[in-house]
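ok so for the tutorial part 2 we go from a plain amino acid sequence to predicted structure tokens. step 1 is just haveing the sequence, like this:
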Amino acid sequence: MVAGRYLSRPSISRSTGENGSARLRPIGYLALTSGSLLRDHPPNPEILNDEDQALIQDVHTLFDSLLLQGIPHYQKGLFLAGANSNNRPDVHTVASLIEHRWHPKVWATVVDEDQLRNAGELAPAISHVFANSDNYRLRRGYNAWHRAVLEREPGERLHQFVRAIEAILRPGKGNSSSGFSYYCQVFTGKSCQFDKLLRELYKLRSALEHMNPYESVLAAHASEERGILALRRTFQAELLASYVYSQIFRDSQLRAEFSTDENITRFWGKALQQPIKFWGNPIDIERLAQTLFDAQIGTRET
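step 2 — the prediction. this is what the tokens look like for a chain of 302 residues:
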């Protein structure tokens, strides 16, 4: 099972095996592999059995684990399924990966060895969360995050990223701009700057939830700045949501803390008093936006 994300336009040579299945040799791409190509050729390679389906899900989860660390630019994603036939990988299914959207004003993430290793740690944790009958809020929140990275429209991306964060806040306490900011400053650190920014994220989410224009939330800013600022806030919501779920999936103790409503309530009682001890180091979504967000992308002459 192979999922590939092209770093440049690929060159693919294709031949046909004796049973009519395709053999492809992609050149110039980053491939994520799972163990299915190492097992013996099944009796009916054209039929996807339960093991094949599980491996397909494993590959998608591994790919999502890379996206949690920042979405890179990629032109095409292929999903290849097959088996080991006479010591050669025999590909019998070729499909396209679901296209994930990167932010139009953000420099794309470069996938390196550290990110690949991190993905290898995150993917089993994600699978464990979805295999467990607990973790209702974690599952719902992660699904909201995943909907966001598939979304093309910036406002809906922000909406889903904020909903993903809301899922793991103290039940019944984070459903206001002040409550959202109060709890999320465990993730960002406490400051007047972050309080204002987090309140704005929640107000933007609420406006979008109720089909209202976002401009009213940004009325304090110059009218010519509001469009770019809304894109910047969308990116900051993405940074925060991805960071939150990466932290939780990377730490088995944190996953336990967020497994049930009762555990979540107890966690917030501790974390609000000692955030570094019970959560970890905060993320500076303002500094990261200054580094990665570039309003001039797409407007410069080439």
